[in-house]
Amino acid sequence: MKVAIFSAKKYDREFLSAANGSRHELRFFESHLNETTASLAAGFGAVCVFVNDHVNAAVIATLASLGVRLVALRCAGYNNVDRKAASKHGITVVRVPGYSPYAVAEHTIGLMLALNRKLHRAYNRVREGNFALDGLLGFDMHGKTVGVIGTGQIGTAVVKILTGLACPTLAFDLIPNETCRSLGVPYVDLNELFAESDIITLHCPLTPDNKYMINDAAIARMKNGVMVINTSRGALLDTLSIIEALKSGKIGYLGLDVYEEEEEIFFEDRSGLILSDDVFARLLTFPNVIITGHQAFFTREALLNIASMTIDNITRFENNQPLEKLIG
Ligand code: NAI
How far apart are CA 328 and CA 312, in angstroms? Predict the structure, then answer.
């Protein structure tokens, strides 16, 4: 099958080409898929996209008119796909769920530990010859309550690591998970989770119903000095509310791997450019904020799994074999 791969980076070429062998004809495009670039898919039966590609109704209509029959997401989240439009145009959509929940879960815990013990500041201090400890005071993770929102594959992996740190966890999910229940994790409503948690971490997908679930009202219910971690999708947080809460000290620590306007910023070297997003620039000024550029998934094991699952999805689609579809 001819596959147009959008938002392609060097590592996408390397891992997808290796997994593919000579099965499909892969063509790599550096540009995002959007209304302007959708025409590049002419002559391809499938497109392969990532987190910041726009698979909206207009793009899907164009893809359908060009004869594209499959959208293969090489990520787990699918908030960037208009599933109704895909269904209307008879386009099948597949994704790669659970390619490595450990990658994201371990990064999440890394953000918690680094924020708590201020490793980002300590690293810089020591390099400058400053060995003073003032300002680096942390807390024992042991015994701190962590609220996990979304206990699918990644949330469950986070819960398991936290068990090893002796952190009691509280969970919220629309569909409670038996593994978490068997680990003794209580499911509570969001208000209780906000009120009782020292650390809150988000692992649910972004849907039309939960945009800005962490807003002024939610923050008001949280403990003073709470740590908030978001490795899921940026628009789960209302960034302006978060900034106000950081300024007042209500939020004591913030760890982000995602940002609601990340498409214009992440995945490129912009070190020589002027940052035009003032909200993001403000976030960078806080000493108690650590931001990584959507790298939580980025482990060798995850890339191997993403590539092999993506190629397998395309092969199964081409051969009319059973496959787990989001649409189609
Ligand atoms: P999953 O599908 O296994 O689990 C998602 C869980 O969230 C499910 O249990 C579901 O019932 C629950 N959920 C759905 N809507 C909810 C809501 N409104 N409130 C609370 N819970 C809700 O997904 P997985 O693999 O655990 O991934 C979770 C999210 O992590 C993805 O949707 C994606 O946004 C993000 N992600 C981020 C990555 C990164 O590199 N930063 C990489 C991979 C995923």
Answer: 17
Cα 62 to ligand 1 centroid, rounded to whole Å: 29
Residue in the block written with tokens 């190629």: 311
Active site residue 106: no
CATH number for domain 101-291, candidates 3.40.50.2300, 3.40.50.720, 3.40.50.1010, 3.40.50.880: 3.40.50.720
- Residue type (1 letter), 282: R
107 is catalytic: no
Ligand 1 in contact with 231 (CB < 6 A)?
yes
CATH of 2-99+300-318, one of 3.40.50.720, 3.30.870.10, 3.30.420.10, 1.10.1740.10: 3.40.50.720
> Does the predicted TM-score (pTM) go above 0.85?
yes
Q: Do you know the residue count of the chain?
A: 328
Using the mean position of ligand 1's atoms as its centre, give its distance from the Cα of residue 203 in Å.
Answer: 5
User: What is the average per-residue pLDDT within 230-237?
Assistant: 97
To the query of whether residue 262 is one of the catalytic residues in this protein, the response is yes
